[in-house]
Structure formats: structure tokens, C-alpha cells
What we know:
The structure holds 2 protein chains of 2 kinds.
Chain A: E1 16-25, E2 28-38, E3 42-47, H1 53-60, E4 68-73, E5 76-77, H2 82-88, E6 89-92, H3 105-111, H4 120-133, H5 149-161, E7 167-171, H6 179-190, E8 197-201, H7 205-209, E9 213-218, E10 221-226, H8 228-239
Parallel strand pairs in A: 3-8, 3-9, 6-7, 7-8
Antiparallel strand pairs in A: 1-2, 1-4, 4-5, 9-10
Chain B: H1 2-15, H2 24-27, H3 30-45, H4 51-68, H5 71-81, H6 83-96, H7 99-122, H8 125-135, H9 146-176, H10 183-207
Amino acid sequence: MIDDIGQPMQPGQPVIQLDHVTSQLGDTLALDDVSLRLDTARIAVIGSNGSGKSTFARLIGGLTRPSTGGVRVHGVDAAKDATALRRLVSIVFSNPDAQIVMPTVAEDVAFSLRGTKLSKPEIAAQVATALDDFRLTELADRSAHELSGGQKQLLALCGALIRRPALLIADEPTAYLDARNSRAVAEHLLRPQGGHQLVLVTHDLELAARCDTAVLFDGGRVVAQGEPTEVIDAYRASLRW
Amino acid sequence: MRTARASDGDGHAMITLYRPGNGWLHRLPAGPKAFGILVVVLVISLLPTSWWTVMIAVSVTVLGYLASGLGLRELGRQVLLIRWIITITVVGQLIFLDVESALSNTSRMMAAILFAALLVLSTRVGDLLDAFERGLRPLGRLGIDPARIALMLAVAINTVPVLARLALSVREAQRARGTRSSLFTFVVPFLVVALKHADELGDALTARGVR
């Protein structure tokens, strides 16, 4: 779906579009009249805690609905058809423990393909390929809970990508990891394979700099959008006091 | 650190019973295997109280582990895991019954547990759940969704070690702040982190296509 990683998509290609979106979570206005259009392959979303970036990720992932305004992701109206949206999207969260559903590594990856029309041998073959791709083959029959934090997050990423999503949302995927594991997860996230669009919510500005576009959230609003280096500079400037 | 490893180990023991292998028992489909093991367990349970029962229960269990390819070492490991159940049963029965009855009852129970372990040792949880789902299919007519029940079981099995780890982290956080351990001071924060985990797991399941 994405022809060339790093380049803006062609007109008519899938995009993420928000029109005057607000999201009220209890007493908090998490998103305040946000309008934006994202059509590059790798999008970094940055901002302080509570700035609205995770709410944005949940909205485009179909996990929550906007209070007002419209959200369209790859042609699907998020408010009207969250189920269709969730078929298009895979999400990786920051806490690797909360993403493991099945006891062993191979079973957990295979879980992502449950409910598809694939036969058991086809699922097994796809799981084997995916595990090989993530260098998890030797751990296939190990308890997923025995893995290190980095391996668990790679497993979560593997389980997310085996669904071949049109859009992968990673919400602070390296937040719980050390430098080495962060790097391993980042390399898998940012490599030019898979043909999916990536929305990466992160506090890691080096990671954000490697994306094609960056969006800066502050107080529930988009305060900067564009070239990652410029947006990161704007963010750093806003942090000085 | 010692406590952390012990807790992880316990969690591990609870959910990673499956031992990879290529023996005939491993290759047998989960449904017929579960049914066969159920029949053996029932037959052993119905044996009369006698020294013969003790011999048959022990022999069948040993043969079961040898024939399945899992071996006597695995049998020893399983016996070790249930050592307290065996001890309590034997001691409890010896107080009220004669030696023959106590050992017959205990050997029947041991054989039943160890045979049930053969099922989970030689079958992946995913295959067991598939078999379970197929077995529950007739309940679909009553409006019960077998896939949902199978998923609920998988999540329940899988959440045990996570909750053990969360409990440990709550206790460690309290110790680090010098709080004295009590049921109340433990339960409230534990419930908070457990509910947070449930929320996150719910999101992860939704994100992976579970409605």
C-alpha cells in the first residue's frame, strides 16, 4: 500500500485525517480541536506526558471514539466502523507483559491469525517465517513470560506485523526497554519492509528524528508538524525554562 | 533477588508444562488424547482398594511416562511438584484408615494427577483450547460462544504469572518505602495494578482483533 518508504504517499493513497477532533476523557480534554492530515510512511508523534499523543494513537487505532469531529484512517471512518478500522490496524503498546495472550512464543504469534481463514499448516508456516524474521525461532516453544523485556516487545511486534496491517501504531514501544533492546525494537520498527504506514508515539527523540514526519502535541493540540528535525527543535525549545 | 526468581519460577511451573517432543503421545490430536487420558484416569479411580491397585496405579503411571517418551526423569519432576499433595493425603488417610486403604487411595489420586499432567506435557495450550472449543461447539445452540470461552481460559492461564509478578512488585515497593506488610496494605494497591493490567490487556486483545 505504501510504495516507497520515506516518500509522501501519492494522491489517492491511504492517509490519516482528523477534522476538528476533540476527545473528552472524564473531566480532561485530551484532544482539543485537532485537525491534521498525515500521508507519509513513518510518522513520529512526540510531546510531553498528557499532551494527547496517546489519545491520538488510540483514536486512529479504533480503541476510542472522538467526542466530536471526524477521524478517517485509510478511508475508514473511525467513528462509524471501528471494527473495519481495527482490521486495518495493529498496535504495539509500551508494556510488553500486557500484550502476551498465549503461553508460548509461537502460540502467541499464531493468536494474531486466529479468526482468519488460514488453515493450521498455513498459520504454522506464517508463524515460522515471522519468528525467523524476528530471530525468535529458538524461543518458539518457550514461555512468553520467560523472555526478557526486549524479547517480549519483539514478540509483540512480531504478533502485530503478522496480521499484515495497513497501519502499525507503536505507542511508546521502547519505554520499558534498555538501550540495547530499544535499538533492536527500533530497527524492526523503522526498517523499510512490510509496506505498512507507521505511527510511532515516542519520547525517544533520536527515534523520532528517523521518521519522515513528526507531529508535536501539547495540551491536547497539535503545535507543530513537518520535518522531524524542525519539530524536535520546536519541542526542545518549548522544554527550556 | 532470590524471591523474584522464586516467584518467576512458580509462575513458570504453572504455565509452561508443555515439553516439546515427537513421541506418539505428542503427535496424537488433542481431543482424542484428552478423551483417552480421561478414560485411563476414570478406570484407575474406579479400581478397588487393594495392594493390587497400588501396584497397577504405579505401574501404569510409570509405563505411561516411559511409553510417551517423556521418561522417568519427567515423572520424577512431576512427583516433586505434587509432593505436598501426596504427603498431606498419605498422612491424613493414615490417621483414619489402614495402610492398604491409605496407599490405595493415594496411589489412585497420584496416578490421576500424573496422567492429567501427561496431557498438558504433550499438548500445546493452543491445541488444547482448539479441542476444548470443538468440544463446546454443541453449546453454541444455547447462545454460548465456545471461542470466547476458550479465549477466556487462555487469558486466565496466562494471567497467573503476570499477577504473581505484580504481587511481588507491590510487596517490593512497600518494603522499599518501609511499609509493614498487612493484608489491607497489600490488597488495595495490588487490586489497582491488577485492574490496570486488565485494562491494558483488554486494549491489546482489541488491537489483535478480538471483539
